Amino acid sequence: MRRFLTSAALLAAIWTGSVVHAQTKVDTPEMLDKCMKGIGASFGAVFKAVGSNAFADAKTELAKTKAYVTASQEFWVVNKKDDALQLAKDTVAKMDVLDKALGAADAAAVGAAAKEVGGACAACHNKYREQDATTKAFSLKAGVI
Ligand code: HEC
């Protein structure tokens, strides 16, 4: 519980505009969608920073990504999807490995760990995300909840 509270506080600090600040709980498909958009943006920034060897910047963006992924776990708890919750936890664990590699400024380890994180995101997307063929919009797979 403590971890959720901590990440909710961090989310309140990094989420802006369209999201009501008091409601940082990710427990509806709409909130999951917002959360994933945030994850996409911050993880994209991690890759961009890694690409220019700006490891300190990458670490900052990674912390945001981790806060989002941690907050997103609430959605799977509420909807009783233990396997998805585990996939989200695996993603966080792989982000911790990446964080260490960034801290050590070990470019080879950073590359390998970043790939692992991407694989962890994809493991959940393959199972729980779908894309509209026409609009290309992503959503939660039909029938999941
Ligand atoms: C446990 C499951 C799970 C994990 C882990 C996960 N995602 Fe997602 N993601 C989803 C689901 C479900 C959707 C579809 C929800 C939606 O977009 O409405 C989604 C959607 C997205 C989208 C599309 C958002 C949009 O609507 O435009 C992006 C970008 C994204 N995820 C990035 C990531 C990244 C990067 C990671 C890893 C750091 C990650 N996700 C980890 C389940 C997950």
Task: Write structural notes for this entry.
- The structure is a single chain.
- With 145 residues, the chain is mainly alpha-helical.
- It has one domain (26-140): Cytochrome c/b562 (Four Helix Bundle (Hemerythrin (Met), subunit A)).
- 72% of the residues lie in helices and 4% in strands.
- It contains five helices and two strands, in the order αααααββ.
- Strands 1-2 form a two-stranded antiparallel ribbon.
- A hairpin with a 6-residue loop joins strand 1 and strand 2 (138-140).
- The two termini are 23 Å apart.
How would you summarize what this structure contains?
By secondary structure, this protein is mainly alpha-helical.
Estimate what percentage of residues fall within beta strands: under 5%
Total strand count, please? Answer: 2
What is the ordering of alpha helices and beta strands? Answer: HHHHHEE
Strand order of the largest sheet: 1-2
The CATH H-level homologous superfamily: Cytochrome c/b562
CATH topology: Four Helix Bundle (Hemerythrin (Met), subunit A)
* Class per helix and strand makeup: mainly alpha
Identify the CATH architecture.
Up-down Bundle
Largest sheet: 2 strands, antiparallel
Rg estimate, integer Å: 15 Å
What binds here, in terms of ligands, is: heme C
User: CATH top level?
Assistant: Mainly Alpha
Query: How many helix segments?
Result: 5
Mean pLDDT: 89
Shape: globular
Low-confidence stretches: 17-22
